[in-house]
Write a structure and sequence with these properties.
- The complex is a heterodimer of chains A (496) and B (165).
- Chain A is 51% helix and 3% strand.
- In chain A, helix 2 crosses helix 3 (69-76), helix 21 packs antiparallel against helix 22 and helix 21 packs parallel to helix 23.
- A two-stranded antiparallel ribbon of chain A has the order 1-2.
- Chain A is mainly α.
- The longest helix of chain B has 29 residues, at 3-31.
- Chain B has helices at 3-31, 52-59, 69-73, 79-99, 110-132, 151-155, 158-161.
- By secondary structure, chain B is mainly α.
- The radius of gyration of chain B is 22 Å and the shape is elongated.
- Helices cover 58% and strands 0% of the residues of chain B.
- Chain B has a single domain (32-155), classed as Orthogonal Bundle (Multiheme cytochrome fold).
- Chain B is built from seven helices and no strands.
- The chains are: A mainly alpha (496), B mainly alpha (165).
Chain lengths: 496, 165
């Protein structure tokens, strides 16, 4: 043993050993960094890998998913249940069965299928099953036109059109005149079929092909109702500053009809693909499904379109005859596209996808989140891109809009229910039908407005001021009707 | 094996390892376009793909002909602080992009927001001194909310990055 040992770190052997080990470890780290840089570069270089050929016949989204796994995985996630205060399945602000826990709706929808079954909304993945299972379809006869929005049907329409003698083949490009003829012919035919038969022709809920061109993934609209509806809107005189391509088309050569797939910008299509279904429409059975956009998108413009519309039997448009009063009334269906059009976000050029499918980053890739859902579940990506405030603050702002809307809607529902009860009492008391006619009109107006807001999926957020205006009018028409009944000397019934 | 031979062997090994480290380090540096970061070229900032939106919108912004990324995002008072800010941002960006553990949407840090504000004044100061004399600028939008937009860009959001649509 040495009395004077060299300190450990001064021994050449140890020093060399440490250098070797240190260099080895540093190399490992550098190589890890290199691997990371390489994979980021690769991610950015190749955004998709073509494993299967997609064409106009590929309906099954799982096939598309082989080429676009990230989008497909997120699309599948729409089956996950979620809830917000006023939305999704099982929210705290709204009942699971909306008619069980809000009996006013049973009175308002009396005599219509919505009075037997009306539930909370669920994610996209459920749209076809939910439709096949709702009592509104199982207990009432419904037409095939319901499938216009609840299934992937471009191919089903075209196949049916070909069977009915439309020209060409399925292989032709969607934009070709033959394909369009097939689509429209099949659409007309499917709308006339009973639902039970028609639903056998479709397999999937909304799928990739409904919004994307299989050749280059460009956005496109494929649903016949929208294709016709947007043409009607373009032909109207209503200003649409949020859809600049329509404004531009109006200034140009109008001999060729407006075509969203040709004229609209990508940003407009990021809303239009949603507007293929999230709209007000007439779904049959008396005439083929149509969007009532001939005069514009506002609640009273749609109402005016309906008021002027005559069914083939010459009768004025109505959805059903109210069981309690006999008034011919209207039913609104989820008019989100119309309501968004009245709001500040649309005006500022914000599309549906900007908030409901915000960009997500996966490595070096940036893609639209295909798990379509409430922006409230994704505030950072949906809202903070433009609004630089903390999440809680943004959520509180949305909630205050929705709470106010709900409170106003409660009052409006009360007004409509009171009017319905009073009209029923007047009929019982034997008041002359002729005298009640103008009051039926007031019921139709009031009810239409409440329903336009109630059926719209945003509890006022898409256009807060517009929604308040509509509900204000609803309350006014409801109470006007009651006053008119008083003037007829009808006994007082409803108190609230 | 004698101590000397062991030392020679170990020395060779250490040299080889050090060489491997230097070589792989150099290779990584080159493959990552390491030298480009010393330039003033705005395309360097999209090496990382993260800044693609910012870069694209800058090309549509009103300043794209007169200012590149560095003109607004680096200090120009002296070379030391310029290099320091460049290095520290470079380090944070590399770390974030390697570990992918950053919050989105990306937000400017207060220090960098100050650099940005100084650069607005570097070019426009003469014009804006009348306004800044009142002490209305150079403060966060709302200190209680920790918002990250200071001064000029609080209102003039689109001059640098242009319309995002």
């Amino acid at each position: 043993m040495n009395d004077n040992p060299t300190p450990l770190l001064s021994r050449p052997l140890v020093r060399m050993g440490l250098i070797a080990a240190g260099a080895a470890l540093a190399t490992v780290l550098v190589m890890a960094l290199y691997a990371s840089i390489s994979s980021r570069k690769a991610e950015a270089k190749q955004t998709s890998f073509k494993l299967v050929d997609l064409d106009e016949k590929t309906v099954d989204p799982a096939q598309w998913g082989k080429n676009f796994p990230r989008q497909f995985d997120a699309y599948l996630k729409t089956s996950e249940k979620y809830s917000t205060k006023y939305g999704g399945a099982g929210s705290e602000g709204l009942p699971k069965s909306r008619i069980k826990e809000d009996p006013r709706l049973v009175t308002i929808f009396d005599g219509y299928a919505f009075a037997i079954d009306f539930n909370q909304r669920q994610g996209h993945a459920y749209m076809l099953d939910d439709q096949r299972n709702t009592k509104r379809v199982t207990e009432r006869k419904q037409p095939g036109s319901c499938l216009h929005c609840h299934a992937s049907n471009t191919v089903a329409f075209r196949e049916l059109g070909l069977k009915g003698g439309a020209p060409g083949t399925l292989d032709e490009a969607f934009s070709s005149p033959n394909a369009q003829a097939q689509l429209m012919a099949g659409f007309e035919a499917l709308c006339k079929m009973p639902y039970a038969d028609a639903t056998k022709l479709v397999k999937h809920p909304v799928a990739c092909i409904d919004c994307h061109d299989p050749k280059n993934m460009a956005l496109r609209v494929t649903k016949p109702g929208f294709i016709r509806g947007i043409v009607a809107l373009a032909n109207s005189a209503e200003p649409v500053p949020h859809l600049p391509s329509i404004e531009k088309w109006r200034k140009g050569d109008k001999s060729v009809a407006y075509d969203a797939n040709r004229d609209a910008s990508r940003q407009e299509l990021r809303s239009m693909v949603c507007g293929q279904c999230h709209v007000e429409y007439y779904c049959g059975p008396k005439v083929t499904l149509f969007f009532p956009w001939n005069k514009g998108l506002k609640v009273e413009q749609i109402e005016a379109t309906y008021d002027e519309y005559k069914f083939p039997d010459g009768h004025r448009f109505f959805d059903w005859q109210h069981a309690k009063t006999g008034a011919e009334v209207l039913k609104a269906q989820h008019p989100e596209f119309e309501m968004w059009s009245q709001g500040i976000h649309a005006r500022s050029g914000v599309s549906c996808a900007d908030c409901h499918m915000p960009y997500v980053r996966e490595g070096a890739l940036k893609i639209s989140d295909h798990q379509v859902r409430s922006p409230l579940l994704n505030i950072s990506r949906s809202c903070q891109t433009c609004h630089r405030f903390p999440e809680e603050e943004l959520k509180a702002r949305v909630t205050s809009i929705q709470d106010r809307t709900k409170a106003l809607m409660d009052r409006a529902e009360d007004a409509v229910v009171n009017l319905i009860d009073d009209i029923a009492a007047a009929k019982k008391a034997g008041v002359d039908e002729g005298k009640l006619k103008p009051i039926y009109e007031l019921q139709r107006k009031a009810q239409w407005r409440v329903d336009f807001v109630n059926a719209e999926n945003s509890m006022g957020f898409h256009a807060p001021q517009e929604v308040a205006r509509i509900l204000g009018e609803a309350i006014d028409y409801g109470r006007q009707g009651q006053v008119a009944l008083r003037d007829l000397g009808v006994p007082k019934v409803a108190k609230k | 094996m004698s101590g000397k031979r062991r030392l020679i062997l170990l020395s060779v090994l250490a040299s080889v390892f050090a060489g491997v480290f230097l070589g792989s380090g150099a290779y990584t540096f080159v493959s990552a376009n390491g030298t480009s970061y010393l330039s003033n070229n705005p395309e360097v900032c999209v090496n990382c793909h993260i800044m693609r939106t910012e870069y694209d919108s800058w090309r549509h912004g009103s300043h794209h002909a007169v200012a590149v990324c560095n003109d607004c995002h680096l200090p120009h008072s002296n070379v030391v602080s310029k290099l320091y800010v460049k290095a520290s941002n470079g380090y944070h960006h590399s770390k974030a992009f390697t570990l992918l553990n950053f919050a989105e949407p990306i937000r400017i840090k207060p220090g960098n927001a100050q650099v940005l504000e100084d650069n607005c004044l570097r070019c426009h100061g003469e014009l804006t001194s009348e306004i800044t004399a009142h002490g209305t600028l150079g403060v966060p939008t709302d200190p209680t909310r920790k918002a990250d937009l200071y001064g000029c860009v609080r209102c003039h959001q689109e001059v640098g990055h242009g319309p995002m649509g």
